[in-house]
Design goal:
binds NADP nicotinamide-adenine-dinucleotide phosphate, six-stranded antiparallel sheet, 23% strand, 20 helices, 688 residues, single chain, alpha/beta
């Protein structure tokens, strides 16, 4: 249907550096709430092979010319501008059937995820083009042959195929880690809601912040896209398990060992603990959460609660409380402020949900709602994709199949009962792997038994109770710092999870060689590599400081008076420092020993250059280990070497990591650690 006052927008793909409408008339995409044609979509005539080549040959090299922090700063700039434009996105989102509350996690949550990645990358990753992982592994006795894992960006394209329910978040949560990793993206949103993704991509590209070729968009079907993937490309898929399995086994994906992540549907469970009966805060929280998960985005969330597991004795109370809440959830037009639930994404989707309910209802009875009837506060149920929430009850959950396996992707959930904790876990596992489960309990024994039982079948488990009720982010929200994904039926994928998500788009390579040459690859000093001992390195600003700059200090003897003074001064009179007999009785010591922190303090006293200078602050140490006891009369010496230099992009300083090794008179290493400092880019300090 096309009404007289509305012109359907013709969507375009952005490939090979230009916006291109597909050929042909285009498939009409209806406004979910009115049924009016909102947009036309076609990818016919798009050169998919050319698009991938363009990404590999233009976008990839351009991104890889930048450091991780530079790429993260691009995303930060984009995220900030998108935030300013979000009203426009919210207006467009109404056509998807989502209310403004539903659109919040998609639009604001999506931009927030982009910004979180941009800031975490600058906090947690070095400002380099190559990442290292783990320690340098000694591979020879004489130290001339060592090994180190490095991570470099894959040199293909990250193809992100997304589901229709999160047109903005689904794109941003995937492109953020890929672009930070240095891999260009080709986004293929689900057709049904592609108009919103297209609008956001249009705005992003108009900002002219990303290098040419870094971001492409295909609106419409994927055509022969996957025929052209190579072993350097990465495919991330979000959608139904059926489509995912088909794409995962595509001959080019299998034949080229293409990295393929799948986030599929999932029959997520929420479990009410036996302790959380009516009258407890946990009972109320549970009922509220189930109702919210059933109705937000009209239940079209991959993380929504589909199975409601309750102790037998609380079944009636749960159904009664849930039904009361569901019946007071007004359903209507997405822009009607009185509506709490909008429409499903399309009439076809709604019809699909009705069919799935019919399958589940063969093993369960409907206890709330009628799939074919809905009362609206606004809108027309004969035109828009509206439906009532539907709650089912399954009496024989241990034997039933459909309630554990059939995903009705709408406002639908099934209540099932359990007899004991083991059975609750067994029922949850009948989902064959889920994105998330939640457990509502205030009992430590219940939570320990349940969460450990559930964990291997889930990507995330949320514990709900009275203490976190106000601050909890809830069952249904994947969060940028935590992994999103689940085993088995849920697709076996893992997305986000902070910087793990970035590393997914990089290749881990073990590099072996001599320290000097390995250091040239990683940009980090490797023990045994070349060093320079001219000016004290604390006198050098970043402009002069080089990896390998070193100071080897004079020796300092540790006396009994030093140890006793330190003990009295700090209050650390632990017996191993103070009592010879007690120290000797300890399996590690031959006599009284110096405090480890005294050693670290003496080390600082030995290596420091005290005058005001480019070293601005010491912000900590990493990996501190005391390796050999220090006895009275031992003599300590420090070797401090500049290990890694990370200039900050928008600051007058950068971080410098120093390898600090403290040895005794026998050359035994007594302490080893990294000293972390902030160092000025130039000295005297200049505002840049
Ligand atoms: P879908 O029908 O499986 O489609 C997902 C995506 O795959 C769409 O972009 C679709 O494009 C594309 N696609 C379909 N056939 C293809 C082919 N032969 N080659 C390449 N691409 C192809 O899923 P949906 O209906 O959009 O989304 C609903 C499902 O997604 C639900 O089952 C839900 O549980 C799941 N989901 C999972 C997550 C998660 O994170 N785990 C998140 C959201 C949704 P077209 O639209 O153009 O056909």
């Amino acid at each position: 249907m096309l009404d007289s006052g509305h012109t359907a927008r013709r969507l375009e793909s952005y490939v090979q550096g230009r916006w291109q409408p597909g050929t042909g008339e285009g498939k009409p995409l209806a406004n979910a709430a009115t049924g009016v044609t909102h947009a036309l979509i076609s990818s016919e005539g798009i050169d998919f092979a050319g698009a991938l080549d363009w990404g590999r040959e233009v976008g990839g090299p351009a991104l890889r010319r930048h450091t991780i922090h530079e790429r993260a700063l691009m995303l930060r700039a984009i995220g900030k501008k998108l935030m300013e434009m979000k009203d426009e996105f919210h207006a467009e989102s109404l056509a998807t059937g989502a209310t403004p509350q539903d659109a919040w996690p998609d639009i604001d949550g999506g931009i927030g995820t982009l910004l979180t990645f941009a800031s975490k990358a600058r906090r947690e990753l070095p400002n380099t083009k190559v990442l290292t992982e783990g320690a340098v592994e000694p591979l020879s006795r004489d130290g001339t042959f060592v090994g180190q894992h490095i991570l470099t960006p894959m040199q293909g394209v990250a193809i992100h195929i997304n589901a229709y329910n999160f047109p903005v978040w689904g794109m941003l949560e995937k492109i953020a880690p890929s672009l930070i990793a240095g891999v260009p993206c080709l986004v293929k949103p689900a057709s049904q809601t592609a108009y919103l993704t297209e609008l956001v991509v249009r705005r992003m590209l108009a900002m002219d912040i990303l290098p040419v070729g870094a971001l492409q968009l295909v609106c419409g079907s994927a055509g022969d896209l996957l025929d052209h993937v190579t072993g350097q490309d990465i495919v991330t898929f979000t959608g139904s398990a059926a489509t995912g399995q088909k794409l995962r086994t595509h001959p080019a994906v299998v034949g080229n060992s293409v990295r393929f992540t799948m986030e599929a549907d999932s029959l997520n469970a929420s479990i009410l603990g036996p302790d959380a009966g009516p009258g407890t805060p946990e009972f109320d929280l549970f009922v509220r959460e189930v109702q919210r998960e059933m109705t937000s985005k009209a239940g079209q969330k991959c993380t929504a609660i589909r199975r409601v597991l309750v102790p037998k004795q609380h079944e009636e109370a749960v159904i009664e409380a849930l039904s009361a809440r569901l019946s007071s959830t007004p359903i209507g037009m997405p822009d009607d402020a009185s509506a709490r639930m909008g429409a499903l994404a399309s009439v076809d989707e709604r019809d699909g949900v009705r069919e799935k309910i019919a399958v589940i209802a063969q093993e369960a009875e409907i206890v709330f709602g009628n799939p074919n009837q809905v009362t609206l506060v606004s809108g027309d149920s004969s035109k828009g994709a509206f439906m009532s929430p539907v709650l089912l009850r399954c009496d024989d959950a241990m034997r039933a199949i459909a309630p554990h396996e059939v995903e009705a992707f709408g406002p639908v959930a099934t209540v099932m009962t359990y007899d004991d904790l083991d059975q609750a876990v067994t029922l949850a596992k009948k989902g064959k792997g889920s994105l998330v489960s939640s457990v509502f309990t205030d009992d430590t024994d219940v939570v320990a038994a349940m969460v450990v039982g559930l964990a291997s079948f889930h990507g995330r488990v949320m514990i709900g109770n009275r203490d976190s009720a106000k601050s909890s982010t809830g069952h249904g929200s994947p969060l940028a710092p935590l992994v999103h994904g689940g085993p088995g039926r849920a697709g076996g994928g893992e997305e986000m999870g902070g910087m793990r998500g970035v590393k997914h788009f990089m290749q881990r390579t073990a590099v072996q060689g001599t320290p000097r040459l390995l250091s040239a690859v990683t940009g980090q000093w490797v023990p045994g590599g070349p060093s320079r001992t001219d000016v004290h390195p604390f006198r050098k600003a970043l402009a002069e400081l080089r990896v390998g700059d070193q100071i080897v200090t004079e020796a300092r003897e540790v006396t009994r008076e030093d140890v006793e003074h330190f003990a009295e001064f700090t209050g650390d009179t632990f017996y191993a420092h103070m009592d010879s007999d007690a120290a000797k009785a300890n399996p590690f010591f031959e006599d009284r020993v110096a405090h480890g922190y005294l050693i670290a303090s003496f080390a600082a006293g030995l290596f420091v250059q005290p005058d005001p200078g480019p070293v601005l602050a010491n912000y900590g140490v990493d990996n501190l280990r005391f390796l050999t006891p220090v006895y009275f009369g031992d003599s300590l010496r420090v070797r401090l070497t500049c290990k890694e230099i990370n200039p900050r992009e928008n600051a007058v300083y950068g971080e410098v990591r120093w390898d600090c090794q403290v040895t005794n008179q026998k050359n035994d290493v007594v302490a080893q650690y990294d000293v972390l400092t902030m160092v000025a880019k130039t000295w005297p300090l200049e505002e840049t």
